[in-house]
């Protein structure tokens, strides 16, 4: 894999109970990425590099919910059990948590949208992001797009992402777009 070093940060996108099997917007197989994410966390932690976890943190009347005319069942309502990070995810106490899509009237798939993520990364001198989490075809894709647009280098953790695939092919389309925009891909070495 590409080894993280100085000026790198790990971004873990929306690894929350509602997106895992048994959750309100479950992604089948989504839990398989958790042990891999934990290995990336360990690598960044050992090198004292920043670790960021984004979370979908909706009000109960969020515009993305079917009840409000949106496409999704209610999920990740702020403060509810479904909005908690996955039990198995070993986030260190120093991890930076970014809550997004908190405004009832605005969808925000990207961790950069209407948050202070960019400012926090710049303050720490971060220039390159290793990105994994859920879902490849929504919040990961949009976070990657925004990161590249803001001038960060992006390395996608291809063994630590999972797609919704609401339409067949969404995952492949998302991967192709990220590659085309200049994203590098890496994965853990077998061990
Ligand atoms: C997400 C659908 C709705 C995601 C968030 O985290 O990818 N997907 N809200
Ligand atoms: Zn959402």
Q: CATH architecture, please?
A: 3-Layer(aba) Sandwich
Number of continuous helical runs: 4
How many strand elements? 6
CATH homologous superfamily annotation: Isochorismatase-like
Strand content: 15-25%
What's the CATH class, please?
Alpha Beta
The largest sheet is: 6 strands, parallel
Structural class: alpha/beta
Return residue spans where pLDDT drops below 50 for at least 5 consecutive residues.
none
Structure overview:
This protein is an alpha/beta fold. The protein has one domain (8-186): Rossmann fold (3-Layer(aba) Sandwich). It contains 4 helices and 6 strands. A 6-stranded parallel sheet has the order 3-2-1-4-5-6, with helices on both faces. Strand 1 (8-13), helix 1 (34-46) and strand 2 form a beta-alpha-beta unit. Helix 3 packs parallel to helix 4. The longest helix has 14 residues, at 136-149. The chain is globular. The termini are close together. The site of zinc ion has 6 residues, from loops.
Structure summarized in a few sentences:
This protein is an alpha/beta fold. The protein contains four helices and six strands; from the N terminus they run E-H-E-E-H-E-H-E-H-E. The chain has a six-stranded parallel beta sheet with strand order 3-2-1-4-5-6, sandwiched between helices.
Give the SSE layout.
Blueprint lengths: L7 E6 L20 H13 L4 E6 L39 E5 L16 H7 L4 E7 L1 H14 L3 E10 L7 H11 L3 E3 L5
Parallel strand pairs: 1-2, 1-4, 2-3, 4-5, 5-6
The structure holds pyrazine-2-carboxylic acid and zinc ion (ZN).
